[in-house]
Design brief:
single chain; alpha+beta; six-stranded antiparallel β-sheet; disordered N terminus
């Protein structure tokens, strides 16, 4: 659909598609949620190839979650936080994830990393291509240049959905055709500077090395989240994570915690008690069930202390119930 032929009804329909409909199926705290029988079929190899062709970049197939995810790093940016350079994998890489819904259509969810001057041109292109924008926000304080994150959601035939997403991000340098190659990995890697095995032991979860960054990602196995007619696993953005960069005695940490409403204040308290800075609290989706909130944090210090702060936040998840109990936190 070209911009000149878009009607107000088209735009509203696109936003509604992005928001989607939702149904709840959640396990009890501490239990592993089961995928409902109405879950859609997996994307076929041909459909995954069509997605890669449509976006212009190969992705990864997460078979156990039925998700095809395409990484979209901002290799063009030289980001500094409080004047110190930080690498792209520290938190300046976006993604687009695809999964089949129960009706057989594909669902797209994305975290689209943009400079502030790119936000509204991409937003207009997204609406023209029938996507809904469900969140626009920061993930950091103190970074230069200023970076914002736009969450776009949509539905459709896999290849067409990918082509429309590529058209939506065309006004930005995030588009794969406009991205430079990743920079070479520095000689100092997490394996000889951060002691990743010890960080994994403290956090209680294994991570992965991406250049100079060690990242731990943790899903919510106690929840089954649904939106736009599909279940949304960790690879669709329903996860908490911590990225570590630097040296063992002085490292940076940045991350995100996904929470139910009753978990928000306990997680904030745990992070602040650990000396970590809370830099954002917001939604990523609309009309998902159960309702989720996402908290971004940052800190500098000994790597093991930072990992203990992340673990303290994780330890608050799944133990405060599911209902939105009203609290007076000023008392």
């Amino acid at each position: 659909m070209s911009g000149s032929n878009v009607t107000r009804r088209d735009l509203l329909r696109g936003a509604a598609v992005g928001m989607g409909t939702a149904a709840l199926a959640a396990a009890a705290p501490g239990e592993t949620a089961t995928v409902p029988m109405s879950e859609g079929p997996p994307l076929t190899p041909a459909e995954r190839a069509a997605i890669a062709k449509g976006i212009g970049k190969e992705g990864s197939w997460v078979a156990d979650q039925g998700v095809y995810t395409v990484p979209l790093p901002r290799n063009d940016l030289d980001v500094r936080i409080k004047g110190e350079p930080v690498p792209t994998p520290f938190g300046f890489g976006g993604w687009a994830a695809f999964k089949k819904a129960a009706d057989g259509q594909a669902v797209l969810m994305s975290d689209t990393v943009l400079l502030q001057e790119e936000v509204n041109p991409v937003l207009s292109a997204a609406l023209a291509n029938r996507f809904g924008a469900t969140a626009i926000h920061n993930h950091f304080f103190y970074e230069e240049p200023r970076v914002f994150y736009m969450h776009l959601h949509g539905r459709g035939e896999p290849g067409d959905l990918a082509r429309r997403y590529a058209a939506a991000i065309q006004p930005s340098r995030l588009h794969p055709a406009r991205q430079p190659a990743p920079r070479s990995t520095p000689a100092a890697t997490p394996a000889n500077q951060l002691n990743p095995a010890n960080l994994a032991r403290i956090a209680g979860h294994e991570g992965t090395v991406n250049g100079p960054v060690y990242k731990i990602t943790v899903g919510r196995k106690d929840l089954t989240v649904r939106a736009m007619g599909a279940t949304l696993p960790a690879a669709m953005g329903v996860n908490s994570w911590a990225a570590f960069y630097g040296a063992r005695n002085r490292a940076h940490i940045a991350g995100d915690i996904v929470m139910l409403e009753p978990e928000v204040q306990p997680v904030i308290a745990a992070l602040r008690k650990s000396g970590l800075e809370v830099v954002a609290l917001h939604n990523h989706m609309l009309n998902e069930e159960p309702r989720l909130f996402f908290l971004h944090y940052y800190g500098v210090g000994p790597a093991e202390d930072l990992a203990r702060g992340f673990r303290a936040a994780l330890d608050e998840l799944g133990k405060h119930g599911r209902a939105g109990k009203r609290e007076n936190w000023a008392d």
